[in-house]
Amino acid sequence: MQGRDERMSAGETRGTAALALVFAFRLMGMFMVLPVLATYGMELPGASATLIGFAIGGYGISQALLQIPFGMLSDRIGRKPIIYAGLLLFLAGSVLAANAETIWGVIGGRIVQGAGAISAAVMALLADVTREQHRSKAMAMFGMSIGLAFAVAMVAGPLLASAFGLSGLFWATALLALLGLLIVALWVPTPAKAQHLRETQLARSNWLPTLKHPELLRLNLGIFSLHAVLMATFVGLPLALEGAGKLPREQHWWVYLSALLIGFFAMLPFLIVAEKKRQMQKVLPLSVVLLLGCELFFWGFGSNLQSLVACAVLFFTAFNLLEASLPSLVSKLAPLGGKGTAMGIYATCQFLGIAIGGVLAGWLLSHGGTAAVFWGAAGFCALWLIFAATMQTPPYVTSLCLPLSPVALQDSSLQARLRRLPGVADVLLATEEAALYIKVDIQQTQRSTIEQMIEAASSNAKKPVWEK
C-alpha cells in the first residue's frame, strides 16, 4: 500500500525544504525587530512608549484580520498566487519601514508586513506537495525551521541594528522577502491539483463545533496569552537590560541566544516525559506558573543583570515548552476532519495576542514604566492559569488521513469495522476527498493495522483474522 512507502520523494523533499525556508525567512523578518524596537525605536521622531507598543504588535493586527480570509481565498484561486501576494506585501511593508522618518512610518510598515498573512496558504501548499504518510515529517521540518528562525532572529536583530541601525534592519527583512519570492518561483513545485483537505482547509461547517469546544477555547486563550506575554516581555526586558542591568543594547544578543538555547534544551525532558507519561494536563499549568513567576521576578529583581539573565533562561524554558505543546494539543482535540479550521482559529488568536500584548505593553510603559509592563504580563499569565488549572486530560490520539480506493469507498461496513479496533476514538469517511479520517491511540492500534484493513477492503479480500 502507498502508506508503507517510508521515503519522501525528491520532489516532496525539495518542496518541503523550500516552503520551510520561505516560512522561516518571513518569521525572521517579523521577529528580528522585537529585541530592538523598544530601544532603537525611541530615537525616531514622534516616538513614545505607547507608539513603540503599536510598532511591536502592529503586524499582529493585520495578521489576525487576514489570516483566515487569505487561507480561504487560496482554496479558490490557488496557493501560489496568495503566497506571492503575501510576500510582496511583506516586502512592501519592509521597504516602507526602512524608509520611515517617524515612528508612524514604522507602524505603517509593520501593519503592511503583517498583511502578508500566508501561513494557511503555505500549510495548504505543503499538503498539496506531500503525500499523507509523509506529512508528519514535513510538519516536523516546519517546526524546526520556526524554532531556528526565532533563535537566529533574536541574535541577528541586535547585531544588525547595531551595525546598520533600525533602517538597515528593515532592509534586511526586505531582502529576506525577496529571497522568499525567488524560492517559491524556482524551488517550490506547482501541484497539478490542489487538495482540498479538511486537515488544512478552513471549512465553514466546522466553525461552530470548533468555537464551542471548551477545551479548544482554553488552548486558544492560552496561545493568545502566551504571545501577549512574549510581546510585553520584549517591551520591558530590553529596557531593563539597558537600564537597571547596565547592559548596552549592542550586547543584548548574547542574553537572548543563551536564554533560547539553554531554555530549549531544558524544556525537552519535560516535553518528552509529559508526552510519554501522558501528563500534559499537569505540565502545562506548571509551565504557566513558571511564566507567571518569571514576570514577577523581572519586576522584583530587574536591577541586577545576573538575575535578569537567569530569569530570561527560565522564561524561555517555559515559553518553548508551551509553544511546542499547544499545537499538539489542538491537533488532538480538534473535531475529526476539522483540524484545518481549529488551527486557523488558533493562529488568529495567536496574532490577536501579539497585537494586544504589544499595544497594551506600550501603554503600560508610558504610564508606569517597565514595572507596569511586567505586572501586565503577569496579569495575562494569571488569567490563563485560572483556565489551564481546570484543563481536562487530553485524548492521546493521533489524527490520520488515509486515501481510499473507489472499491474501499463502496465498502459500507469499513467504518464500523474500524470503530471496533482498540483505541479508535472516531472515524469519518470523506467521500468527496476519497479519504478516511480516523482518530486512534497508536499505542493500542498501530497505523499499519488500519492500512491493512483498508488494503483488504480495496482488494475485496476476505476479512482479516483480527475481525473474526
From TrEMBL:
Presence of keyword Aminoacyl-tRNA synthetase: no
Tagged with keyword Membrane: yes
PROSITE patterns in UniProt: MFS (PS50850)
Keywords: Cell membrane, Membrane, Transmembrane, Transmembrane helix, Transport
GO (cellular component) term, any one: plasma membrane
Cell location: Cell membrane
Membrane topology, as annotated: Multi-pass membrane protein
Stated name of the protein: MFS transporter
The organism of origin for this protein: Ventosimonas gracilis
